[in-house]
Amino acid sequence: MQDGFVKVAARTPEIRVADVAYNTKAILSEIRDAYEHDGAKIIVLPELCVTGYTCEDLFWQDILLDATERALTEIAEVTADYDAIIFFGAPLRNNAKLYNCAVAVSHGEILGVVPKQNIPTYNEFYEGRHFSVGYEDVMIVNLPFAGEFGIPFGANQIFVCESMPELKIAVEICEDLWVPNPPSTNHALAGATVIVNLSASNAVVGKADYRRNLVIGQSARLLAAYIYASAGEGESTQDVVYSGHDMIAENGALLAESKPFGDGCAASEIDVSLLAAERRRQSTFQSSGASELDMGYVHVEFTLEKAATKLTRFVDPHPFVPDNPVTRAQRCEDVLSIQAHGLARRLAHTRSTHAAIGVSGGLDSTLALLVTARAFDLVGLDRAGIIAVTMPGFGTTDRTHSNAQELADALGCELREVPIAAAVRQHFADIGQDENVHDVTYENSQARERTQILMDIANKDGGLVIGTGDLSELALGWATYNGDHMSMYGVNGSVPKTLVRHLVNHVADTTSSAALSRVLLDVLDTPVSPELLPASADGTISQRTEDLVGPYELHDFFLYQVLRRGFAPCKVYRLACYALGDSYDAATIKTWLRTFYRRFFAQQFKRSCLPDGPKVGSVAVSPRGDLRMPSDAQANLWLSGLEHLDD
Hints:
Distance between the termini: 21 Å
Structural class: alpha/beta
Number of helices: 19
Strand order of the largest sheet: 13-12-11-10-9-8-15
Shape: elongated
Strand content: 15-25%
Oligomer: single chain
Mean pLDDT: 94
Largest sheet: 7 strands, mixed
């Protein structure tokens, strides 16, 4: 349960219809394996697994129901030493009625019984012949296995972990998920962060995909984890077949799944603290304002020991870039379309027929130029109105200069060259700057001279200055204030550096122009650099950005976990070591994470006055809504969170 993670498992035992003794052993075997092998703290088994779902009229036999009640006591007693909460299905009598129930046990105690609310009597389902509709209100009932003080019985129960208050579990059973208003909706609004579903969903062609979509969609809609365990081997195949389809989803992501007709086992870690944070962030969640007590819910407490949780779930090392090539290509098209349409609207609104853009031969300016060309096409403007300005300075290399020229030619833009060395030297003379002192003034003077040129060209020709800086640079403050930091519309402002590379590569792969593809591939092969320091003796780039601020691969990972997830430094560090540990050692990760926090806080003043630009993803730093942060906030608390971490 470290860092908000809880290990969970869905298990499908191989049962025999109506053989309660056999099924009890099978259930206990699955529980033991899930606990000892997976380390699961929440274990979910299928609907009516104590008897088998397909007992039909045998459910009317008292001998079967008596055996079921004894089995409940046995399961609770045998698992008494397990530090876990366990849910399994059983038919139970109460007040002269029979109910299809989920039973919750933990540390040898039967915590509560949750009856199924939606009883299907259509197609191959005829549960209404045997079972009564479960009621929402929770009552304390005296059942043979309930003990001296009775047991909670009713649908509106939330099982709350004393040692992790954000871990709140509610139950629905099979058909409950398939109805227009599933009980899990109210469960979540009443505070449940985890929904468990005990199911006996039969296999028909196409149903597994539909079922998967239901589970994933409900977890997204509720900002919850969803643990789904379904009946499988051993159920009667007289009319239908059961495939043992188990799933674990979290906020719209499928974490684990057993293949239908497979091993009947799914295990992963759910991030309860993430779910709670997402609900706090989304202002429309629980907008009714009603408390769980007002909604008629009863809290049933249980406890779990606080212990480290070994991670096995997938943590994306590149959260902004899909790993699947097809998905990645579609993502690139979506991003390029958002950027281009955003700029097209601004061009149309300002009646601009020209755009000025500084083209350095680097990745960011290349992407901005590609987007501008698309925007001009959308508006119906001649690309000759795009003024691609190359402004060679003290650090410009022949390679980047040549690529800038070829790129403008391939896109049909007007190319203008305005060398800045003489103007910058004059500025140095005016302010008393020694050209041989390569300090921040030396570098920033060049950036501001270039911005002045672009602004004046845009004014002269009646156009907009298109900003090229990307999200990663803005997060780190890797931009010259009122230099490249400023423009009239920043098309790359919410595109992280790791995605910029793929966007350029996507255009290179899909363009019909061999010349454009060739120059784009060479841009991709060029080291990332602002080229503000003189080139090396051999004419190559001497100033490499990632040597100075750290790998963008790491910083983009940090950026996503900090801004999108809101994770604490220790959790960001742990996840980075887990996801990127094969590429960077722990000491390197900690060093650059410290750099990230230090620069992120110190450079907010630049982000507070960013130009307009389109938001393309879930992470952005626009001061007009995406990131409202005071420029004088202190990073001490975050940096101190890294002090005692082991490398």
